[in-house]
Write a structure and sequence with these properties.
The longest helix is centred in the middle third of the chain and has 16 residues. The protein has six helices and no strands. The protein is mainly α. It is elongated. The chain has one domain. Helix 1 packs across helix 4, helix 2 crosses helix 3 and helix 3 crosses helix 6. The chain starts with 34 loop residues before the first helix and ends with a helix.
Length: 134
């Protein structure tokens, strides 16, 4: 594969970074999403009642990350979809390698704590939707 502007495929025209000199002296641009920002947003969404989630999705001024997380949560509730809920929990809690059940699992413990923070009406609605689908 050749590099753009270099038909021979040679890398002779590339300049390596100088030792001690940053390749990105300006750093990360301000305002970019961080993993921590996504995590905090998802944690907040997981704790909201259904009516608040619907308000977030309906409001055109809501940030797209909040709308996306609220939409995923609403779809998980509507369809009783554990996969969607799992994806949000993974964002909120993080992915931790499971340990054998006899030793306990830090991921399962954290996931259980996150589920405990989800409002009861949301969980009840998820179970109703899931049972209706079966």
């Amino acid at each position: 594969m050749s590099l753009p502007g270099n038909s021979s495929g040679s890398r002779g025209n590339l300049k390596p970074f100088q030792p001690g000199v940053s390749g990105n002296p300006g750093g990360k641009p301000k305002g970019l999403l961080t993993g921590e920002h996504v995590k905090v947003t998802v944690q907040r969404i997981l704790e909201m009642p259904v009516d608040k989630l619907q308000e977030i999705v309906a409001d055109p001024k809501t940030k797209s990350l909040q709308v996306a997380a609220a939409s995923i949560m609403l779809m998980a509730i509507k369809n009783g979809d554990a996969v969607r809920l799992e994806s949000l929990l993974t964002r909120a809690v993080g992915r931790v390698k499971d340990e054998p059940p006899e030793q306990g699992s830090t991921y399962n413990a954290a996931k259980a704590q996150a589920i405990e923070r989800i409002p009861r009406d949301v969980l009840v609605e998820m179970m109703r939707e899931r049972n209706a689908a079966v």
